[in-house]
């Protein structure tokens, strides 16, 4: 057992994949947090997959488990209190949950990288951005300080930071919000990973800067043919860049679909509620729709369908049975007892 | 950076004048220096008047202060009770105290920070609670208790270390007084480090560092420690002055003839030049230590450099 673990190579450089074999597959993932108040069930059986060059948007409210799933993939959950009692996370066919800590560390940053929401707090305030970028090359590739600095300048150029060579020694607080997020992107991009997980990369930015940063991210993804998991609660951001969407609620995927179909015909009342809460110009002056109630307490998730207390279509069966993820169409699913009625409006 | 240093240096001037003037006033206003000189005997009024005149004691206080300061800058701190120049007493006392302070400082730094890091990284676990209880214990017990207890048990009963300091002031003689002197500060350093580490370890940039695939050792040494030690450095720097001035009790217990000993003698015999002279030097030490902290602070935290 130990020998196979030691010799089992970390997935090598990018090779042409057989069509349809996904880069990353999450299977029946469960994550819970053991706290003093009880067991918080943050993720309850999530399945999704991403292929090279594909963008998966994971949509959901705060506390829906979208970030926790991402952190489980990265392997940066604090365990304890977190625990993964069940599930598999396959990266190029290998279950990362059974790997040794050292194997996972080598994948982190190099093969799977992550971009966080708030770049100011996510960058180390007392180290120059050049140092923080160069660190990737020094640690993973053993480059010298000087070579790493040159690479850092290259990266800053790549993400279109003006006068990169002059700014490589500056500190995070000396950059604007948009520039800081570009540095986060550069850091994730440094070793040309196969997969990038972006956890609300534009939430902390101005609207105009949001668009620039999203465009940059999409452009680089195309260039490097990376898989991208985009975690967001902003439906506007998703529409432009995503290929497919997974909507999460109470730690479960309630609907997944190609992006166009989901916007046209949502197959879950929750998705419909989310879409209806987007302000629209042609409804100016009318009261904005909002989904009633609050997201469930994860210490005590309602029985049956977790969404039933807030659902306008809830019946007795919703209170009793957890709906399975039904296949709505090819590559499309909905975890609603009444998905047919929902899709027809 | 240059302007920052100059500004800091200029800020020290009023602090130096203010503190030394206060001490000067307090010491000279309390008691009669001429009477103290004669001890129990009553001085001859003519001689007393003559001494008063030669020491400028009839001048207004501010003028006396100016003359005293002028003397200090020429290396003249006045004469101590035993007739020796105060500057000579300083030459004897400061090397001893500085050695003791260094030993205490190293103990405080190494043990305090290590305990704090271990406890902070395991917040809420047994070891963390252990460190908290232990440090509370150390903080609560006065120095003269720990001093005498350690001296008796470690020095006399078990004979592990020399129980007192000889005139040669050897290194191993300074370990026990060093531990006693470092004790309370060490406890504060440990607690401060613990809080800082525990807070920073949950920060976003540590999560980023982990997500970058850095080895845990590097996450801690490069990313976590550097940020967490900023408040600790402030405390350590200001504590240098505290250690030097606060060694009175420790120096007495372990019979070290340092600054504390001389100050004690000076106060006991109401010898104003000794007290004011030593305190003035300590003020300078405090100010220098604070300047050092401010500079280190700017080196450690770039956000302060340009402020």
Structure description:
The complex is a heterodimer of chains A (345) and B (307). Chain A has 14 helices and 12 strands. Chain A is α/β, with parallel strands linked by helices and 345 residues long. Chain A has a domain of 96 residues. In chain A, helix 5 packs across helix 6 and helix 8 packs parallel to helix 9. The relative contact order of chain A is 0.13. The N terminus of chain A is likely disordered. Chain B is mainly α and 307 residues long. In chain B, helix 1 runs antiparallel to helix 13 and helix 12 packs antiparallel against helix 13. The mean pLDDT of chain B is 84. At the A-B interface, helix 3 and helix 5 of A face helix 9 and helix 10 of B.
Keywords:
heterodimer, A: 345 residues, alpha/beta, 8-stranded mixed β-sheet, 4-stranded antiparallel β-sheet, 34% helix, 22% strand, globular, B: 307 residues, mainly alpha, MetI-like fold, 78% helix
Percent in helix of chain A: 25-40%
Helix and strand element order of chain B? HHHHHHHHHHHHHH
Widest beta sheet: strand line-up of chain A = 6-7-8-3-9-10-12-11
What is the tally of beta strands of chain B? 0
- The overall average pLDDT of chain B, rounded, is 84
List the helices and strands and how they pair.
The complex is a heterodimer of chains A (345) and B (307).
Chain A: H1 2-7, E1 24-35, E2 38-50, E3 55-59, H2 66-74, E4 82-91, E5 94-95, H3 101-107, E6 112-115, H4 119-122, H5 129-141, H6 145-158, H7 164-167, H8 177-189, E7 195-199, H9 207-224, E8 227-232, H10 235-241, E9 244-249, E10 252-258, H11 259-264, H12 269-276, H13 316-320, E11 326-329, E12 332-334, H14 339-343
Helix pairs in contact in A: 5-6, 8-9
Chain B: H1 2-29, H2 33-38, H3 45-54, H4 61-73, H5 86-121, H6 126-140, H7 143-157, H8 171-200, H9 204-211, H10 216-245, H11 248-253, H12 259-268, H13 272-300, H14 302-305
Helix pairs in contact in B: 1-13, 5-6, 5-8, 5-10, 5-12, 5-13, 6-8, 7-8, 8-10, 9-10, 10-13, 12-13
């Amino acid at each position: 057992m130990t020998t196979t673990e030691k010799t089992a190579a970390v997935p090598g450089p990018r090779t042409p994949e057989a069509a349809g074999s996904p880069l990353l597959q999450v299977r029946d993932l469960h994550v819970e947090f053991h706290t003093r108040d009880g067991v918080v069930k943050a993720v309850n059986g999530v399945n999704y997959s991403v292929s090279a060059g594909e963008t998966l948007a994971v949509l959901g409210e705060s506390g829906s488990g979208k970030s926790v799933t991402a952190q489980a993939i990265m392997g940066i959950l604090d365990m304890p209190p977190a625990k993964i009692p069940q599930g598999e996370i396959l990266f190029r066919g290998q279950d990362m949950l059974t790997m040794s800590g050292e194997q996972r560390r080598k994948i982190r940053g190099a093969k799977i990288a992550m971009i966080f929401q708030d770049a100011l707090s996510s960058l180390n305030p007392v180290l120059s951005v050049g140092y923080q970028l160069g660190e990737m090359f020094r640690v993973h590739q053993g480059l010298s300080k000087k070579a790493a600095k040159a690479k850092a300048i290259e990266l800053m150029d790549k993400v279109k930071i003006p006068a990169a060579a002059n700014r490589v020694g500056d500190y995070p607080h000396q950059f604007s919000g948009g520039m800081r997020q570009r540095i986060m992107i550069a850091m994730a991009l440094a070793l040309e990973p196969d997969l990038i997980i972006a956890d609300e990369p534009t939430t902390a930015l101005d609207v105009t800067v949001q668009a620039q940063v999203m465009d940059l991210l999409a452009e680089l993804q195309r260039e490097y043919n990376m898989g991208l998991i985009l975690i967001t609660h902003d439906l506007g951001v998703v529409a432009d860049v995503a290929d497919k969407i997974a909507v999460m609620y109470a730690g479960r995927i309630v609907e997944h679909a190609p992006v166009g179909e989901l916007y046209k015909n949502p197959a879950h009342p929750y998705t419909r509620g989310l879409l209806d809460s987007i302000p629209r110009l042609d409804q100016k002056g009318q009261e904005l729709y909002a989904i009633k109630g609050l997201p469930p307490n994860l210490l005590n998730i309602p029985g049956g369908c977790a969404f039933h207390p807030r659902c306008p279509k809830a019946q007795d069966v919703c209170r009793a049975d957890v709906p399975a993820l039904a296949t709505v169409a090819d590559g499309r699913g909905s975890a609603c007892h009444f998905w047919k009625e929902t899709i027809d409006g | 950076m240059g302007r920052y240093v100059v500004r800091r240096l200029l800020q020290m001037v009023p602090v130096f004048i203010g503190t030394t003037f206060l001490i000067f006033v307090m010491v000279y206003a309390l008691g009669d220096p001429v009477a103290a000189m004669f001890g129990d005997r009553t001085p001859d009024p003519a001689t007393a008047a003559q001494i008063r005149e030669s020491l400028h004691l009839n001048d207004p206080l501010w003028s006396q202060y100016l003359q005293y300061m002028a003397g200090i800058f020429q290396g003249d701190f006045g004469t101590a009770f035993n007739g020796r120049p105060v500057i000579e007493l300083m030459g004897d006392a400061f090397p001893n105290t500085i050695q003791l302070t260094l030993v205490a400082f190293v103990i405080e730094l190494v043990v305090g920070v290590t305990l704090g890091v271990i406890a902070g990284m395991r917040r809420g676990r047994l070891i963390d609670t252990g460190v908290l209880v232990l440090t509370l214990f150390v903080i609560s017990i006065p120095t003269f208790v720990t001093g005498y207890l350690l001296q008796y048990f470690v020095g006399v009963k078990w004979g592990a270390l020399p129980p007192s300091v000889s005139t040669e002031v050897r290194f191993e003689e300074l370990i026990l007084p060093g531990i006693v002197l470092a004790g309370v500060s060490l406890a504060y350093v440990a607690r401060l480090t613990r809080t800082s580490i525990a807070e920073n370890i949950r920060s976003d940039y540590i999560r980023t560092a982990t997500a970058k695939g850095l080895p845990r050792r590097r996450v801690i040494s490069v990313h976590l420690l550097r940020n967490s030690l900023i408040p600790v450095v402030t405390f350590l720097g200001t504590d240098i002055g505290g250690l030097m001035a606060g060694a009175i009790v420790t120096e007495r217990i372990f019979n070290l003839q340092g600054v504390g000993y001389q100050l004690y003698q000076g106060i006991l015999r109401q010898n104003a030049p000794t007290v004011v002279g030593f305190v003035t030097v300590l003020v300078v030490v405090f100010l220098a230590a604070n300047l050092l902290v401010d500079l280190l602070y700017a080196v450690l935290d770039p956000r302060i450099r340009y402020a």
